């Protein structure tokens, strides 16, 4: 078995800052894990891209990131990238890859009514991968799907400290609740990693709703896959990589610093 160096990081990847919702759960479980967080700002948003674009873009970027940062594990903290390109990424990389897919299983387990919702990007909600998750984990339930690209922009704006019109959150929830059977909806899957960052606002728009996401499950999976590995004794400075301009990050920096990402670079 090859020894993993203590300083080998966990490499998180998303189109933007959505993956921070996954990173936070992992950091809480692994305090000293060295972190590289890569945001593909040059490609944001993924939700409006085609399957072919995502399947070409994500493995190529991750190949460069892995070469540069030599991570012990790659975590694709993006439902859109995973439901489309997880297989391509695994085939292209020689490090283990943890994916993020809509948390339909825990949602199905906790629904009292048998009607569950899925908020995701347009690209995610139309995936066969989602049909398969439903068939495997919620075969006798009704799954209402709604694409809410506005929430990606809202989460990005919130993390930059900008004002977001609350009507955006109400509109996203109405997209589910106003569908047939929507009045029985009790659990909604936040099937885009940007959405847990605005969970409070979504809850204000639909106070009776329970929201689930995959972050805690991913953190457990990371712990499991690294359980025999060593970590540095003290937390190191985290690295934030953007595929866009570093100067465009401006108002995002306080949020990144608060999560320990003090080295900011571009790919
Ligand atoms: N955060 C991403 C996801 O989990 C996608 C957001 C986007 O780029 O559209 O799906």
Using DSSP, what is the number of strands? 10
Outline the biggest β-sheet.
Answer: 6 strands, parallel
Q: Which spans have pLDDT < 50 for at least 5 consecutive residues?
A: none
What would you report as the Rg, rounded to the nearest angstrom? 18 Å
Instruction: Give the ligands present.
Output: D-glutamic acid
Question: What percent of residues are in strands?
Answer: 15-25%
Looking at the overall shape, the CATH architecture of the largest domain is: 3-Layer(aba) Sandwich
Element order: H for helix, E for strand: EHEHEHEHEHHEHHEHEHEHE
Tally of DSSP helical segments: 11
Descriptive key words:
267 residues; alpha/beta; Rossmann fold; 2 domains; six-stranded parallel β-sheet; four-stranded parallel β-sheet; 11 helices; globular; binds D-glutamic acid
Quick gist of this model?
This protein is an alpha/beta fold.
Explained architecture:
With 267 residues, the chain is an alpha/beta fold. The chain has helices at 20-29, 51-69, 79-92, 104-110, 122-125, 128-137, 149-159, 167-177, 199-205, 215-225, 253-258, and strands at residues 10-14, 35-39, 73-76, 97-98, 115-120, 142-147, 187-190, 210-212, 238-242, 261-266. Helix 1 (20-29) crosses helix 10 (215-225), helix 4 (104-110) runs parallel beside helix 6 (128-137) and helix 8 crosses helix 9 (199-205). The chain is globular, with a radius of gyration of 18 Å. The mean pLDDT is 97. D-glutamic acid (DGL) binds at residues 14-16, 18, 44-47, 78-80, 121, 124, 152, 192-194.
């Amino acid at each position: 078995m090859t020894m993993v160096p203590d300083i080998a990081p966990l490499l998180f990847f998303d189109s933007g800052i959505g993956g921070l919702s996954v990173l936070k759960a992992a950091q809480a479980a692994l305090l000293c894990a060295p972190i590289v967080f890569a945001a593909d700002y040059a490609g944001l948003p993924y939700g409006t891209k085609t399957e072919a674009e995502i399947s070409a873009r994500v493995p190529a970027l991750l190949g460069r990131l892995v070469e540069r940062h030599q991570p012990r594990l790659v975590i694709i903290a993006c439902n859109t990238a995973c439901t489309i390109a997880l297989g391509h990424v695994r085939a292209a990389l020689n490090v283990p890859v943890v994916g993020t897919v809509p948390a339909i299983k825990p949602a199905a387990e906790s629904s009292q009514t048998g009607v569950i919702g899925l908020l995701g990007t347009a690209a995610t909600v139309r995936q066969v991968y989602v049909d398969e998750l439903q068939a495997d984990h919620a075969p006798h339930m009704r799954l209402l799907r709604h694409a809410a690209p506005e929430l990606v922009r809202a989460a990005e704006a919130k993390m930059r400290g900008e004002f977001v019109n609350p009507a955006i959150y109400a509109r996203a929830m109405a997209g589910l609740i106003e569908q047939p059977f929507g009045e029985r909806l009790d659990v909604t899957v936040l099937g885009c990693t940007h959405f847990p960052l605005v969970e409070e606002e979504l809850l204000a728009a639909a106070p009776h709703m329970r929201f689930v996401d995959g972050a805690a499950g991913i953190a457990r999976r990371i712990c499991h896959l690294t359980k025999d590995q060593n970590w540095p004794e003290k937390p190191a400075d985290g690295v934030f990589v953007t595929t866009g301009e570093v100067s465009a990050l401006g108002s995002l920096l306080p949020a990144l610093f608060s999560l320990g990402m003090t080295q900011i670079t571009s790919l």
